Amino acid sequence: MGKVEIPVAIVSQECNKRTVSCTGRAHRGVAGGKMGYQDPGLPDDLLSRIEAMMPGMTRSDVAIARKLLAAPDSFAVSSVRAIATDIGVSEPTVVRFCRNVGCDGFKDLKFRLTRELAFRQAQNDAAIPMIAREPEVREAGGGTPTSSPSHYAHLHGRAVEALNAVFAEAEVAEAASGAAELIAAARRIAIYGIGGSSAILAEEVHNRLFRLGICSTVYTDSYAQRMSAAALAEGDLALFVSSTGRPRSLQDSLDLAKYYGARTVAITDRDSPVGRDADICLNVSLSQSQVHEFQPNPMRYAQLLVIDLLAFLVAERLGPQARQMLRQTRASIAMLHGIAPQQPIGD
């Protein structure tokens, strides 16, 4: 087995002192050696942050901010001299403005602005109307709009599409069978997921397995993922849940787990780094169709279907052990609120 190169990430973070008035208005103050408008409640994205800072800015900075917000695309490709001349301020004033809003200088502001505009454009390209807009129906006395039946139908349709897509993958059932064999035979299982629904679904895998009597632990912190993967050995299993299969911490953890002799299973896109490198990959890919910006990708329904299938197959292989453990765990809850006759023992 070739030696795996373990990447080392060094992250530095500048801690700034912040000065805020009792009215919540941002003031100019010294922050990490720089003059800036500091407020703990300011947004992270540059354009929103500049807009939020404007009430506490000087007249010159307000003029620069207005020009930037009015035409950010033009600002991102302009020179400091052109901006200063157009507004009627000095070039150092423009540079100070950049530092006041949290950038290292004019070039850094342009870089961040370009990156943010590209991100916003990507979001706009991906965001399409979910349905034709209908008149909003509001609860009696005002308030927020109620759920539209057509929204409900659209969300239901996307969920069904995701389930049908993974069900149509013949390889998923075959891969699930092999993964169930590894899970049932493993001495212990480390489960990995990070960010959003992937971390929640990793918790669900753990929730399904420990009740079958399987020794499993879930890790959703990137540091803990690397450390736990380095503690695995032959006879152990690392199981990864990821929407994209690309988070760096998951790739590193998979490499470490394999290096120390553990087997690996992934519920992710088979063409992703994690999907390609895992011993077994249960292919669940991101939807190729566009998704409304307010709607999470429906692939989490497909991931949950695969998790249910895995848990069922593992329980079948464990047989009497799984049945006894489920009875014991169910009995521990029944002591609290009694028996619910319609609830399956696997819940």
TrEMBL record:
Signal peptide span: none
What are the protein's GO molecular function terms? carbohydrate derivative binding; DNA binding; DNA-binding transcription factor activity
One of its Pfam families is HTH_6
- Domain of life of the source: Bacteria
The record lists the organism as Sphingomonas koreensis
Keyword Transferase attributed: no
In this chain the HTH rpiR-type domain maps to 44-120
* Transmembrane intervals: none
Keyword terms, alphabetized: DNA-binding, Transcription, Transcription regulation
Extract one GO BP annotation from the record.
carbohydrate derivative metabolic process
Q: What is this protein called?
A: MurR/RpiR family transcriptional regulator
Residues of the SIS domain: 179-320
